[in-house]
Amino acid sequence: MKTLFAKSTPGRRGVCIAEPACCEADHLPAELLRSHAPKLPELGELDVVRHFTQLSSLNYGVDGNFYPLGSCTMKYNPKFMEQAAALPGFTRLHPLMAQLKGAGHFTQGALEVMYEMENLLCEITGMAAYTMHPMAGAHGELTGAMIIAAYHADKGNRKTKVIVPDSAHGTNPASAHIAGFEIVSIESRDGMVDPAALKEALDDEVAAVMLTCPNTLGLFERHLPEIVEMVHGVDALLYYDGANMNAIMGKMRVGDVGFDVVHWNLHKTLATPHGGGGPGSGPVGVCEKLKPFLPVSRVKKLEDGRFVLDYDHPKSIGYMAPFYGNFGVYLKAYAYVLRLGGEGLTRASENAVLAANYIRKRLEEHIHVPYNRICMHEFVSSAVGEDLNGVRALDLGKALLDKGYHAPTVYFPLIVPECLMIEPTETESKATLDAFVDDLIDILELSKTDPDNVKTAPHTLPVTRLDETRAARQMVLTDDV
Amino acid sequence: MKTLFAKSTPGRRGVCIAEPACCEADHLPAELLRSHAPKLPELGELDVVRHFTQLSSLNYGVDGNFYPLGSCTMKYNPKFMEQAAALPGFTRLHPLMAQLKGAGHFTQGALEVMYEMENLLCEITGMAAYTMHPMAGAHGELTGAMIIAAYHADKGNRKTKVIVPDSAHGTNPASAHIAGFEIVSIESRDGMVDPAALKEALDDEVAAVMLTCPNTLGLFERHLPEIVEMVHGVDALLYYDGANMNAIMGKMRVGDVGFDVVHWNLHKTLATPHGGGGPGSGPVGVCEKLKPFLPVSRVKKLEDGRFVLDYDHPKSIGYMAPFYGNFGVYLKAYAYVLRLGGEGLTRASENAVLAANYIRKRLEEHIHVPYNRICMHEFVSSAVGEDLNGVRALDLGKALLDKGYHAPTVYFPLIVPECLMIEPTETESKATLDAFVDDLIDILELSKTDPDNVKTAPHTLPVTRLDETRAARQMVLTDDV
Amino acid sequence: MPYVPHTAEETRQMLETVGVSSMDELFADIGPELRPRSFNLPHGKSEMEVMAQIERLAAKNKVDVVSFLGAGFYDHHIPAAVDTLTSRGEFATAYTPYQPEASQGTLQAIFEYQTAISRLLDMECANASVYDGGSAIFEAMMMGVRATRRKRLVISEALSPIYRIMLASYTTNLGLELVTVPHRDGNTDIEALMAAVDDTTAAVVVQNPNFFGHAHDFTALFDHAREVGAKSVISVYPIMQTLLRTPGEMGADVAVAEGQSLGMPLSFGGPYLGIMTCTSKMVRQMPGRIVGRTVDTQGRTGYVLTLQAREQHIRRQKATSNICSNQSLCALRALVYMSLLGPCGMKRVALSSIENAHYAAKRLTAIPGVSLMSDAPFCNEFAIRLPISAYEAVDRMTERGFVPGFPLGRYYEGLENCLLVACTERHTREDVGILAEMLGGLIR
Amino acid sequence: MPYVPHTAEETRQMLETVGVSSMDELFADIGPELRPRSFNLPHGKSEMEVMAQIERLAAKNKVDVVSFLGAGFYDHHIPAAVDTLTSRGEFATAYTPYQPEASQGTLQAIFEYQTAISRLLDMECANASVYDGGSAIFEAMMMGVRATRRKRLVISEALSPIYRIMLASYTTNLGLELVTVPHRDGNTDIEALMAAVDDTTAAVVVQNPNFFGHAHDFTALFDHAREVGAKSVISVYPIMQTLLRTPGEMGADVAVAEGQSLGMPLSFGGPYLGIMTCTSKMVRQMPGRIVGRTVDTQGRTGYVLTLQAREQHIRRQKATSNICSNQSLCALRALVYMSLLGPCGMKRVALSSIENAHYAAKRLTAIPGVSLMSDAPFCNEFAIRLPISAYEAVDRMTERGFVPGFPLGRYYEGLENCLLVACTERHTREDVGILAEMLGGLIR
Description:
The complex is a heterotetramer, with 2 copies of chain A and 2 copies of chain C.
Chain A: H1 4-7, H2 24-27, H3 45-56, H4 79-85, H5 88-91, H6 108-125, E1 129-131, H7 137-155, E2 161-165, H8 171-178, E3 182-186, E4 188-189, E5 192-193, H9 195-201, E6 206-212, H10 224-233, E7 237-242, H11 254-257, E8 261-264, H12 266-269, E9 284-286, E10 298-301, E11 307-310, H13 327-363, E12 379-382, H14 393-402, E13 409-410, E14 419-422, H15 430-449, H16 451-455, H17 468-474
Parallel strand pairs in A: 2-3, 2-6, 6-7, 7-8
Antiparallel strand pairs in A: 1-9, 4-5, 8-9, 10-11, 12-14, 13-14
Chain C: H1 8-18, H2 47-60, E1 66-67, H3 80-86, H4 89-92, H5 104-121, E2 125-126, H6 133-148, E3 152-156, H7 161-171, E4 177-181, H8 190-196, E5 201-208, H9 219-227, E6 231-236, H10 247-250, E7 254-258, E8 274-278, E9 290-295, E10 301-306, H11 312-315, H12 328-365, E11 371-372, E12 381-385, H13 390-398, E13 402-403, E14 406-407, E15 418-422, H14 429-443
Parallel strand pairs in C: 1-13, 3-4, 3-5, 5-6, 6-7
Antiparallel strand pairs in C: 2-8, 7-8, 9-10, 11-12, 12-15, 14-15
Helix pairs in contact in C: 3-12, 5-12, 6-7, 8-9, 12-14
């Protein structure tokens, strides 16, 4: 499809704005002005509407397609949450309004949302307090790592390292690194954190261990109680990567079992849409002793029932966001929690786990499942075996695109060869799950008889496979090149 | 695509509703209850969202496709109008609220919209008064015809006939017929109403003449002043079919030139979306002497600035709608008129006419244009000529679908053989008009070399040509058959 | 220029191609004597300014009231997905599906709507919609007139008075006789109707639940009509149809409804949805568009508009009706609504509404001097008799942001003290409690 | 169960296939000692009930005030089509475009966004967004640190204090030295900055227009930085960038912005949009996703995520940043906004805002005792000095539904009497008139 810029005609105007009474020279000296107008697209309003309507049709989204993308929890995004977040009472609220004393009562509804959401997340996870400020999962990880650093600094601990298992999400080491830590990687064993390896790595310089549980193989860490004890034994803190929270709601509270810090990905577990890459929301919960280090502001409820922002936390790590995080995102998540209630959240996790196991069982005779036991909300399969004629995980994913499904996550976690990570979520009907399994089996069969067909998929989408090497080498990053 | 019913699973529930405290037997005796539950689809909310998201992708709409459908004025539907009509201050307003004295002040905003919109339409068309009640164009025609009947009845005239030219929209004779009139059809000459034929048909029994101007060939009726005089000469009324209003705004006011009744199609001229068939809005304007016959209620402005509904019009034809017409539709049209203003409306008509003439000129050497002179907002071409190898108007339309355009109106008006009626509207950019012309020329060229390709089009849409005969014979009208 | 995308240069090029030197030259056919005498319209405004103006108007309407207004038009909850899906440009900005290959979305949706509505009303066929519930009754009556070639119509006075006025208006010039059979304390007088329906009757028209909220079984009436060769027309409330004996079970020939309750906001009177269904026998008498299933040249299933020989663009004055634009997007809303709720959800909506109404009736009749107009079964709406003028009660409570119902005296002489009270699932017990307290306070 | 579509029978079948007898058996790995000690959450509610609750909360916020709050976050008009288009499910419910063949919509949109943003800021490359304007400055600074391997950062005090606090927080553990160069009466002190930037400096960070609304030309500063081997980082206001000298023209290495003004509602602080651009030389230092153009196996144009070797899912702790989720849908909003307005429309928005601010400045400084903090050129925001506490002025006017601006004492010691006043195209002369009258009344 032509770009907006290729469609542009000099002098054309879209949304008309009344001509202002002044020109720039009236108020600004020439040396402060740009020498040429920016070459932004010049299109009629209908042209713009048509461009983006057509562009959108080139995308798969949950609203149109089953999206079993492992680790991403692509569940249904309820539409009423969008209506809730679009209420002018929220969208028109300037964040600084809450910081003016006289206008504090103009923002009571928004502050109540923040306060109540923190409390709900505390109860779901058994933590002592939350901050809603982190703007995405990785941002939550960074916040958590900084809180850990501040805690140890405050205690006078000299701790420079963070342990991250090799099966962890890539953001874990990256976030801890940006918080100033050195990363120690430990190898998994039998798809689990190896307590022996952990023990060896755990020394007095370890500030924290970051754990994903269930891990990225979709398996619950069976050595969890032992791990908790070992980590706390060296005065290190235990971090819970909440990316897989959709597996355990109502079944385990990370605070109860000894995790000290946890982040959520609300755009996964609590059903806010992923938006083609964001915005997300990554609130962070902490245990009691870490509360003083949470970012400011904190929202506080006064005895008279009013809510205020509280900046008086001298040990706080400071500002992680300009204001209070992605309010418009966690407002949706708040609506979702109210809608589901405790039972609904539990049922969501149960059914997410059931769906993953159902697909696993239905597929186990057709594709290699490396850790073929009860999994949590997702599982990994592996496209290995001679009868596949060299068809790889990527090829299977592409062939699924032709059938109208988004591909599973491929080649992650790195510890499983030709990995396909499948996460169906609880919101897909059995009919969809069955159709997906049947279609994947068809593709596996086709790999035996006509592997080239699979290796050259997709065949029915707007483009066939794209030359990524060329993209990286020639680096055409704007329409100007 | 499978139907909703084929996707349904007994016992599945979508949007959950809390279980009520009672059952039907608590309040209603068994003999009043149905014996079996209706077999409505049972689907999860995501299934429903996905079904309709996918269904929508099978449609062409103005938002995605150029839609030069003659007589339908498929212009851009500005999105802010949808936001305006979705304001809770309007959507949550019960219509009966305005009929309660004490609650009259609860509906002042809505009544003001009605009042102001009537006034704006009066000024645009030069009529004395409007009713916003008719719910579509044909409903406006019926309303107009009933007003005409009431007027003549009140005067004691015995008038039983309405004259409709053969080039008129099919709704004209149908509406007049349902208002109780006998229809007299007159033949066109040179693409115009033939004054001689009209004169012959005009006798004392003629209640009205219904005129479309510009007519359905896109031509302005050159004999208009003569026609007005002739019609009024026999005490008949002249009706203006507003379907083609997009050609004349700011250039002619139908009231000024002597039309007595006029209806609008707001979903055409004033840019409210057509919705796949409706809802529309068909307000009717009348000259001074017809005011007493307008439907009730009428909205009235009191001296203190308040608006009230007025039912005290003994000569009124009564209720045409349960309340005040399709308020949610004409609210959008009201926003559109405010947005464009007088100059904007004039420019809309000018550019609609310019676009039609531009396409006409660019096509005239490639396809037969029967009345090849300056047209108004649309023109007709005719797929005749031996070099087309039997390719018909329908085939050209279908081939255009393959190029991503909606087809022009085909086989209307009936008086032109193999007619293609093209109405581009003012909101399409020159680039779109040029691309359309180029593609149509390509198809005409292809007709010379590979007519079968064109005759079997479309080739790229979800279905090829459908068997309409079978549909009418076998009559499968529900999924139960 | 809003929404006209041409640059000055493009306009110049286009004028040149056309061969005229100015815009106005394109309008040479409109002579000077035909030009506007005035065109005194406001100047155009920016989107921002117009939205601000419209928002100010919206704010002049007071919608944060607790209201028990119904009278055929109800404030049910509309799931958000209804708006999300039906507002998609591919649905909203499409024309009538005359090019089926590019309109399978609309066509399949209408087909599914026809199916769902037929099943809900237990009838064999449905059309793609007409304007509203009132025009649907008119069209249904006319089907009876055409089918029987008779001119006498028997109508229950418990049919919505709003619709009865519409019928009177629509039929003024058609030489038909409209016989209205009085209600009995808010009940449809079935015996009197049976007496009035004879072998000169084209159709009998009733409503269920009727305007006063009472449900009836019309089987005997419709049997009688069939025996004397008259057609039976019934207007129903779609939500209640999940519970009530169906038009099909009662033997109706044509069943219609106002579909507003199926996902349409109240929107000050429209757009709403005229639902029409009938028996297979009557389908060729039915006005409006109808979608049928067929196959394409490759044998794949597809949908088309069918039976178009009934329609005005083919038949002109001989068409079964003049209806062209209908309420297609509203029909889509109804379909999405029904799909989202499913039969169980819709039934729960009906039951919650009924439960609330019965609770309200209990609370209100506990006020001394207040009584039900009739002790016959009712659904989510009921009429009470007050010891004071219902107008006065409404006016005084309304001032305090509480609309207790509709004063029946507005349309029924002699019922000036009667109030029609409607509940939906949106009402809470608290709302009802305040209603009872306020009304009690007024009467005391 | 909301959003879980299985019937009881289906659940039974699925459990059977899996080979377990109950749901909880699936969680056997979570031993009893690991089970929740409490899970005391409210019961689920219907969509209708939750919406009613959320609407009540929304109503507790007062948004029908006239507000002159800005401070980097502005209430510009958002054309309706922005919502219509970006809310389409195909955009909103897609994941990060890791499968390019099924994501060309998102990918082309990001590519177009990168192009538009690069052109607006006059820089060579842009990424697909980061969280917000503040984290963008942090990431830009870190690009300088990585590129120069130096640890000293020079920051103007006229950079938003909100962002300066963020920078201080983010860099706590990174062993960096942050040097803050004071503002001069609200002006960026370019000479002092030049003096502070030396050959140990990783980057210098400025804002244009600065927090007080003043625009500057930083060419000399950036030239100097280049000479001493430091990188230049500038944060801008995208709307004003249609007029002001560009980062590219001034020779910046990295230019960032808060993109909220490009079609994002204020939404109590987010989601907003972190805009990042840089020179070609710096692109491999840039964090976040980047889309590149390429071809498919048939030679057709297509788009893919590129330079992924910088990213955490490949590089883990060696990545240029930990950013994974970004603000993609907000970037799409910005692109749609820019496309709808075009360069002319955006410039008019800027000019109207500037015009309103200068009118306001004129009216306010006409009040005895009120003066501009500086007579340097400003855009749509300016600081005034009052004869009374700015806090007091704000509090007293706010009570009457009128927020006159932001009290600078909140972040700047010594400026307790100063007020920061912002205007956009949404303000009217009437709004400004009331502002002046109210403030005048307070002071008198």
